[in-house]
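Objective 1.3, modelling of assemblies. Example input:
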Amino acid sequence: VIAMNAPPTGPVTCLGCGCLCDDIEPTVADDRLVRLGNACPLGERWFGDGTLPTEVLIDVRPAPFDEALAEAARLLSAEPGRLLIYVGDDLTCDAHREAAALADRIGATIDGPTSDTVADGLLAAQRRGRATATLGELRHRADAVLFWDADPATRYPRFLERFVHAPALFATNRRLIAIDIGDRRGPAECTERFPIDAAEEVDALAVMRATVLGHPVGQLSPPLTAAADLARRLTKESKYLAIVFDAEPTSPADRDEGRTEGLIALVQALNGPTRAAGFGLRAGGNRNGLESVLTWQTGYPFAVDFAPGYPAYAAGETVAERLERGRFTAALVLGNPATIPEDVAMRFGSVPTVAIGPRASEAPFSPHVTIDTGAASLHEAGLVLRMDDVPVHASPVLSHPRSVTDVLRALSSHLPAQTPAEVG
Amino acid sequence: MSKEQLRLVGGTVYDPANGIDGQVRDVCIEDGRIVAALPPDAPRLDVTGMVVMPGGVDIHCHVASAGVNHARRLVPEEHAGDPAPAPRFVDGSGRSGTGGTVPGTFTTGYRYAGLGYTTVFDAAVAPLTAKVCHASLDDTPIVDAGFFALMGNDDFLLRQIEAGEHDLARDYMAWLLGAAGAYAVKIVNPGGIERWKSGRRGAAGFDEPVRGDRVTPRAVLESLTAAANELRLPHPVHVHCNDLGVPGNVATTLDSMRTVAGRRAHFTHLQYHSYGGEPGKSWSSAAAQVADYFNSHPEVTGDVGQVMFGPAMTVSADSALEHALYAATGKKWVNIDIELETGCGIVPHTYREKQAAAALQWVVGLELFLLSEDPWRMVLSTDHPNGGTFAAYPQLVELLMRRDARDEQLKRLNPRYLAGSALADGIAREFTLNEIAIVTRAGPARILGLKNKGHLGPGADADITVYQRNENIVEMFTLPRYVLKAGTLVVEEGQLRRAPQGRRFHLRPTFDEAVIPRLRRYFDDHATVRFEHYPVLNLKSDSVRLL
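Predicted structure (tokens):
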């Protein structure tokens, strides 16, 4: 933690979305951020003025830190096998590692926003694999970028500036193409647009893939014919095609499992006649980091249930659904509660919770124990992963009395001692 | 700190680096190191009748890179089939995990140690993703570890080669090793990954420019090998040649070796690079040609990359190769192009005795072991998990030690490509325990330049494996009776009991800082991560730093 009022030593990393822009130039005065060079509106909201609450509460009453930890430990030790550790946003991978260790120790399920936002896509990628690239490859190599039902402008404001419009080393000309699904529109600067009815989206993907593979496609509607023609032309005209889609679409109607699988299959097929990479836009707060840490520790990227005494994969059901059916008797909620999907957050009212994280005291549910902490990058150094899994080091701008990582370590020491093996 | 002492009493010691070949003698340990002697009242561990060797050293495996983690994610069905409950340690700790061909990190550390391996090197890490590898290694207990940084397709390097800027290329190499916290330079398919990323297909000629007029695979190999030798790196370039898996690739492999002749270079998983024949027409073993070259060139070292029958996971920076495997098999396929540096491809695979290609690969690997006269320079690997997992090492040891075991298996193989095989004709050689100790410990440690590993002389790390003698070689090497890591008993009576944190090997070679402003400018102009955020920071203070 750097000293109060110390000027930052260099650019810092924004976790406002999955772009993880690491060129943010902060100015600090009186322990607050007063200016953020290079930040987009989303980034400015994410950083705010850098101040976060510092409360420690049992129910709604202020409590000593150790007492809050002891109470949290009591709650989390009560019914092993029926606990949830929910990992929200704005944490470092170091905090994720501690959270997974805790879940292993107490036989909890560990999960995060993935189950309720992007699980279909991850499961499709586990069935098929995927062809992708880091975002610098999009920037430097893609001579055609096809936005599939995606305009990064609102939710990923600097995506186009950093990865599509930035000067390229290899691709001298770049076509921007929009596949507009239903009434949604891709980026305004696209010079080619292909409207497709929402009901025909998955069909369009299948037709394009079949065309790329040289399979017969039969009689098609005019939009699908146009899609097939586009696929045929791109295999000849593009040497490196990027397909950008939103991996975390906000509208539930978009969550057709066939959509992501169709996108993955199309991109894989395109690598026969040409080169292609798919880019799924991801939200911020180091969600990719949680998936990576869980994968290396347990083999599974989300929905990991330690109740059997080893990691088991509980994918297929959202956290909201598991809470709804009473799977858990208590929950440890880590991270910024404001970033938890609404249908999950509202169900945290139905079980006793311990909330630890940035703005835990502002949770929209009523935790039994609340411990405010600093946020990754703002106050806590560590590893965070961009939406393409590129690691970025987050170095803190300001100080906060507590980090999630340290609180989790302290909580662990309040749990009942582990039984040592007997050595004969 | 109190002096922790232990005397291993009465074991039969195989310590080839110190010329000890099966002598009954005590091994003395103090504070995690081997010492020449201890006071008579020092604590003792009776290992009478048992076989004592240094801890195993894996020179080439894939356990902790970001690419490995993508492979791990790809096979939840394998993890579900191989759950690994937490071992019960004497301090009550222990982490659960899952196995399969790509086990979780904790399970990886435990299983390696359980086999008596105490040092491992991840052989392929894109420097851009080095932070993920370090964090994964932090969660890989017991073993000391390091990794090799991928070079040879990186844009900055290729530009220096095109411009004839050899010194800048060398200084960049030195900077990159330090920035990534890496231990050695790994060259994968020099120039070939850039070729795949830029949309060109088919085998690249060794002298065909990948870029401009001067950047050929030969020039890349030549430049990096020269630079690594000038920097006097403890392990010079670790080379995955061009044309992996292609019939007739022995020509490229031998050409690569001749290109760097007279300089130190390590050629890895040579089994995949030792084929005769012609694509689409014929396929045969060319292991004898490679072994002949090795037998007459003492500066060259290699590891085999043995194929073991059963499930495997191919994961490689050689992404063009992985696409070819996907196209041939239709299995799951991951491709990740990594900006300005390298690539990554992943395809699950199963080697079967009745597959003609797999049978040939199995034979070629064993021939490389058995026809190479100097075991110090042709050491054991399965390129885990590519040719099979490290869990198969005991089976491989048996194949090396017992002709009847391999001849029996040979009878079951598809003979289609085995007509010219020396192994099929019969090779009588059987490895001794001393030779096993060389190819699994002493040799890899020497090749890696690790002075304190792979031997039991005074000053060495007290990484020791004690085996119960057993006619059944697979059983003997699967279940060591004791394993010590830096003097700590991690395996006792065949049970994993402790899991100390391992140390990290990484280098910070010195270089002419004039390269820094150029690198900063390059990052400002082309990279998507800021220059100051690229290096790995805060490596653990107990890391082993060399140079």
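Residues 356-371 of chain B form the longest helix (16 residues).
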